[in-house]
């Protein structure tokens, strides 16, 4: 089993503690979203896992061994940290061929990953002419070159067009369904919600959450129901006699706080109230994330309201 294990990991840069006694495990077979405000320590953690930086304390291992002790690291871990890393005077084909040659990876993989990442037609073009999105695809191609068990990508959707964003989402899910360990950092909450099964959230270098996406959303949202009815007057009296209040939203639907769709369905059935629509209103990942990290966001801009209150 090739998991990523971070144990009591700490990294100090002078007086800055970028990573603070961090412990978590990234398991195979699912996509783990790696979230946190700017400066929370996500990139530093990824660099420490890849042995690109030395921890001040603690350990980071892949499949039980530090990155440097893997004999064929690119066949074990594929990573994208910086899409600008490839030299501009090279072509994707020469860049990937050099990586393959120096890591004992068959040359046939170069063509495969170029096709997989949509770069098949531009394999011979100079990288300096590439857009950010194309560089991003090339970085992902390099990460997949060794057909690795573990894939770690820092902001992979950066610069991708809508088609590219859908592609990366499907790719992440596919890699996890093949039993690989997939860790993806992102600031795009809708994106992360669309592909992550599990979340690890950092704030100021510390672990704020490590749980399945569903549990994260459930733990940070109060139950709330949205419904439409042809009998609003009867609904309101039924709610009142059950100690509940409904508020009509601008779209004409009713919103009832502190209750589930199941409970409202039972009340409506008992009172024979005609409902046209009934659903639990779940918190979005963005709402849940902002709620969790509110106190750990060092670079939050003050809003107009903050300024008025000050
Ligand atoms: N090489 C370095 N030298 C000094 N400080 C650093 C270095 N690398 C990171 N830091 C500091 O460590 C902290 C964590 O930075 P890091 O880049 O890991 O955060 P992040 O969560 O990836 O942020 P972002 O979302 O903005 O990319 C920040 O305070 C940053 O300024």
TrEMBL record:
Transmembrane segments: none annotated. SMART domains: AAA. Keywords: ATP-binding, Nucleotide-binding, Transport. This is ATP-binding cassette domain-containing protein. Belongs to the ABC transporter superfamily. It comes from Streptomyces parvus. Pfam families: ABC_tran. One of its GO terms (molecular function) is ATP hydrolysis activity. The keyword Nucleotide-binding applies. The keyword Hydrolase does not apply. Residues 4-229 form the ABC transporter domain. PANTHER family: ABC TRANSPORTER, ATP-BINDING PROTEIN (PTHR43335).
């Amino acid at each position: 089993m090739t998991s990523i294990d971070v144990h009591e990991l700490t990294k100090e840069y002078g007086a800055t503690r970028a990573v603070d006694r961090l412990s978590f495990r990234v398991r195979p077979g699912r996509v783990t979203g790696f979230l946190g405000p700017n400066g929370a320590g996500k990139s530093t953690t990824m660099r420490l896992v890849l042995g690109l930086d030395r921890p001040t304390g603690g350990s980071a291992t892949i499949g039980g061994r530090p990155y440097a002790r893997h004999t064929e690291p690119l066949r074990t871990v594929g990573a994208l940290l910086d899409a600008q890393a490839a030299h501009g005077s090279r072509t994707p084909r020469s860049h990937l061929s050099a990586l393959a040659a120096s890591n004992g990876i068959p040359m046939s993989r170069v063509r495969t990953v170029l096709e997989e990442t949509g770069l098949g037609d531009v394999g011979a073009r100079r990288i300096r002419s590439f857009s950010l999105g194309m560089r991003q695809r090339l970085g992902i191609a390099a990460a997949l070159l060794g057909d690795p068990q573990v894939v770690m990508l820092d902001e992979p959707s950066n610069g991708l067009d809508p088609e590219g964003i859908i592609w990366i989402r499907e790719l992440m899910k596919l890699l996890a369904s093949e039993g690989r360990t997939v860790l993806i950092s992102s600031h795009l909450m809708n994106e992360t919600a669309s592909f992550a099964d599990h979340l690890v959230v950092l704030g100021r270098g510390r672990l704020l959450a490590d749980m399945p996406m569903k549990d994260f959303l459930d733990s940070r949202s109060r139950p709330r129901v949205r419904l439409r009815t042809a009998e609003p007057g009867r609904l309101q009296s039924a709610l009142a006699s059950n100690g509940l209040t409904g508020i009509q939203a601008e779209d004409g639907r009713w919103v009832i706080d502190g209750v589930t769709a199941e409970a409202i369905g039972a009340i409506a059935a008992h009172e024979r109230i005609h409902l046209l629509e009934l659903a639990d209103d779940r918190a979005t990942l963005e709402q849940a994330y902002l709620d969790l990290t509110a106190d750990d966001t060092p670079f939050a801009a003050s809003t107009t309201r903050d300024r008025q209150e000050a």
